[in-house]
Design brief:
Helix content is 52%, strand content 13%. By secondary structure, it is α/β, with parallel strands linked by helices. The chain folds into two domains: 4-142, Rossmann fold, CATH 3.40.50; 151-208, Winged helix-like DNA-binding domain superfamily/Winged helix DNA-binding domain (Arc Repressor Mutant, subunit A, Orthogonal Bundle). Strand 4, helix 4 (92-101) and strand 5 (105-108) form a beta-alpha-beta unit. Helix 7 crosses helix 8 (171-178) and helix 7 (156-166) packs across helix 9. The longest helix is centred in the last third of the chain and has 15 residues, at 182-196. The radius of gyration is 27 Å and the shape is rod-shaped. 28% of the residues are buried.
Length: 209
């Protein structure tokens, strides 16, 4: 059976106690240490009698040195340790900073204790884990935050034309209603197709519904 030695760095006593109990109740895990700050954790890691640790669950918002600041100091002491950030922060800037400094995973504190322990096992076996909401933020960020085009991208005139199409009007009828030429209607429709990334009137009308 695996014996995953887990360290905790969390200043909130209630959360730290819950995590300690969860670690101790997980057959494959044992508690290596529990500290309320990075400084306290580093003191433990400097103890010549310290038996070692495989995984550290590390909070970001800590008194004194933050979790992000503490990552390189911890990895200096234990180059092979896997760090899992366990935090309330889910902005991409902090996520990327944590990962680039050496964290293996980034988990929201809203995650259930069972899932957190599953993540510990996954990371210990060489994998990584991201809370779904955090993983989505990373994907959106890496893809440039591109969102599916929608009707809000259109100008007021283009929306007038879309309404005409949705009402079953011909190009000629739309032109007459808006007091513009048919060629102008066609020009707008080409632009509408391009903006909405569609290829037919039906697709435009379906988006309007």
């Amino acid at each position: 059976m695996e014996d995953i030695r887990v360290g905790l760095v969390e200043d909130n006593m209630t959360i730290r106690t819950s995590l300690k109990q969860c670690v101790e109740m997980t057959p494959a895990c044992s508690l290596a240490f529990a500290a309320g700050s990075v400084e306290s954790a580093l003191d433990v890691l400097s103890d010549f009698e310290f038996a070692g640790v495989d995984i550290i669950l590390l909070d970001i918002g800590l008194p004194g040195m933050s979790g992000l600041e503490g990552i390189p100091h911890i990895r200096h002491k234990l180059p092979d340790v896997d760090i899992i950030m366990l935090t309330t922060y889910d902005d991409t800037e902090r996520i990327f900073e944590a990962l680039t400094k050496g964290a293996r995973s980034y988990i929201s504190k809203k995650t259930s204790l069972k899932v957190i322990m599953d993540a510990v096992t996954t990371v210990y076996r060489g994998g990584s884990y991201m809370s779904p909401s955090i993983a989505r933020k990373l994907v959106d960020h890496l893809s440039g935050g591109k969102k599916k085009p929608n009707l809000k991208s259109l100008s007021d005139r283009q929306m007038d034309i879309v309404r005409g199409l949705a009402n079953g009007l011909s190009y000629k009828m739309i032109a007459s209603q808006l007091n513009i030429s048919i060629d102008t209607v066609r020009s707008h429709i080409k632009k509408i197709y391009k903006i909405l990334e569609v290829n037919s009137k039906i697709e435009v009308v379906n988006m309007f519904k």
